[in-house]
Amino acid sequence: MNQGPDRHDVVIVGARCAGAATAMLLAKRGLNVLVLERARLGADTLSTHALMRGGAVQLRRWGLLDRISAAGTPAIRRTRFHYGDDDTTTVSIKPAAGVDALYAPRRTLLDRVLVDAAISAGAQVKFGVDVTGLERDSTGRVVGVVGRDRRGDLLRAHGWLTVGADGARSLVARDAEATTVRTGVGSGAIVYGHWVGLDVTGYEWFYRPGGSAGLIPTNDGAVCVFAGTSTYRFQRELLGDIRAGYMRLLKEVTGADARLGSTSPPRRLHAHPGRPSYVRKPWGPGWALVGDAGLYLDPLSTHGITDALRDAQLLSHAVAAVLRGEEEVTAFSHYEARRDHIAGPMFSAVDQLATYRWTLPSVRRLLLELSSAMSDEVEALSALRADA
Ligand SMILES: Cc1cc2nc3c(=O)[nH]c(=O)nc-3n(C[C@H](O)[C@H](O)[C@H](O)COP(=O)(O)OP(=O)(O)OC[C@H]3O[C@@H](n4cnc5c(N)ncnc54)[C@H](O)[C@@H]3O)c2cc1C
Description:
Bound molecules: flavin-adenine dinucleotide
CATH architecture of the largest domain: 3-Layer(bba) Sandwich
Largest sheet: 8 strands, mixed
Structural class: alpha/beta
Oligomer: single chain
Distance between the termini: 20 Å
Number of domains: 2
Strand content: 25-35%
Number of strands: 18
């Protein structure tokens, strides 16, 4: 399609799970794809990085799950739900949709694997570029971006489609004036750190009114341990002393789980104060949004990466339809409808979870709703033809 040093078919802002996956898929279709990323290659980001089955299905479909496993990421074969003091339910991860285990790769690994796959597919990825605005033609259609590289030099990149894979604070969404079509009422905060020496082999989730916690085995023998509560409580009780608040909340929610007392907590903790979940209209003339830029679920869902990998696939199907001659409006409306059909029920359950205004019976019900929505997602993803 487009030629010339700053002319591409697709310009993507952001090179993590949404951007790198989209770049890989579009480059595999033979498109000239440029990805611009502000951070450096391999940089970490805020995330407890647990993949749900839909995410594992996508990585397997793309031939990347083996790389995650080969990098020593532990296979998760069971999930344990702890409700209050004396109610624990264990669910084994049964083989389904070609996946017999879940994984929680560090983002330094997952995002890197996706970027490598995008480059291998033919995409060009530039790090250290801060995109500062969108460019439009005389009709108002978005035709590319402008930004600055690390030296401060101005950079312009033009394409038929500009994709915002630039996360929750998406500049592309803002400058394209993407409307927010749904906003949640809940907002949960998360504090986490990577512990060593903990005996944990599966995902473990803890719920107690007003708080949550999770144990997530990951690379290098570490376990990501998070404590969660409402943004309101985080600001009142944790913000003053995050470390003390984290330890207090963990103790409260896990019922002083003996494993956490058997080893020292990590020196480095990460905190996310939370924001309400949202859904944005993910396309307009010359632009589209994927990942958190378009749809954000509270981190208590541990589903944002899976959302991003799913929507990369759905967006690439819409682009393929346009390449086959379908009207952009039809193809991108279909992308939006498919995304919202799959994510809508998850949004409702996660938003209620993020209020932290539940009881133990009602949190069980919400988790069942979420689990059923995730099963529907896996079915929908499995039904997609990779080459459609
Ligand atoms: C505390 C926390 C815990 C979480 N835990 C989980 C979990 O366990 N499981 C899960 O599935 N999800 C989890 N999530 C959600 C998950 O991290 C996100 O959904 C996921 O990272 C979204 O990927 P993305 O590629 O859309 O955006 P991001 O990961 O936010 O990447 C966007 C990229 O765009 C770049 N960028 C932004 N603006 C510009 C610009 N102007 N110019 C150039 N580059 C730009 C950024 O540098 C960034 O690298 C968690 C989130 C948080 C906050």
